[in-house]
Amino acid sequence: MKGRLLIAEDEAGIRDLLAQMFRKEGYMTDIAADGNETVERLAAEEYDLLLMDMNMPGRNGLEVLQHLVKTGNRIPTILMTALGEAETIEEARRLGVVAFFGKPFDIFELKAEVAVRIRTDVSG
C-alpha cells in the first residue's frame, strides 16, 4: 500500500472517479461527500493526505482547514477548486494547503503531486 488518502468532493462522479483511480494506483482511499463528513473521517482515522474540494456543503474547504488548524491536525492537503480567487488561495496557503489544482485539472499532474506528497510525508 502506498498510503492512505481521504478524498473530499461533493460531486459524486468526480469523487468516485478519483477514489477508483487512486485505488488502482495502490492507495487506500476513503471518501467524504461534504465538509462535515470530512471532519468526522479525519477525527476517526489517520490519513497521509487529504484531497479536498473547496466548495462543499456543510463546511467548505476553508472551514475544514480552519478546524484542522484549531485541532492541531497537520495533514498535508491538496485543494481542488473551480474558483481562482486570490484571497481564498492565500488564506488556504496560510492554513497549510500544500498544492492547488484548478478544475478541470490534469489527472496525470494530480497523480504525480499525490505521489510526491505522500512519499515525502511517509518517509519524513
Protein architecture, described:
This protein is of the alpha/beta class and 124 residues long. The protein has one domain: 3-Layer(aba) Sandwich (Rossmann fold). A 5-stranded parallel β-sheet has the order 2-1-3-4-5, sandwiched between helices. Strand 4, helix 4 and strand 5 form a beta-alpha-beta unit. 27% of the residues are buried.
What's this entry about, in short?
48% of the residues lie in helices and 21% in strands.
| Category by helix and strand content | alpha/beta
Radius of gyration: 13 Å
* Fourth-level CATH superfamily: Response regulator
- What is the 3D form? globular
Termini Cα gap: 17 Å
CATH architecture: 3-Layer(aba) Sandwich
Strand order of the largest sheet: 2-1-3-4-5
The domain count comes to: 1
Number of helices: 5
CATH topology: Rossmann fold
- pLDDT < 50 runs, ≥5 residues: none
Summary keywords:
alpha/beta, globular, five-stranded parallel beta sheet, 48% helix, 5 helices, 124 residues, Rossmann fold
Provide the fold topology.
Elements: E1 4-8, H1 12-24, E2 28-32, H2 35-44, E3 49-53, H3 61-71, E4 77-81, H4 86-94, E5 97-102, H5 107-123
Parallel strand pairs: 1-2, 1-3, 3-4, 4-5
Helix pairs in contact: 2-3
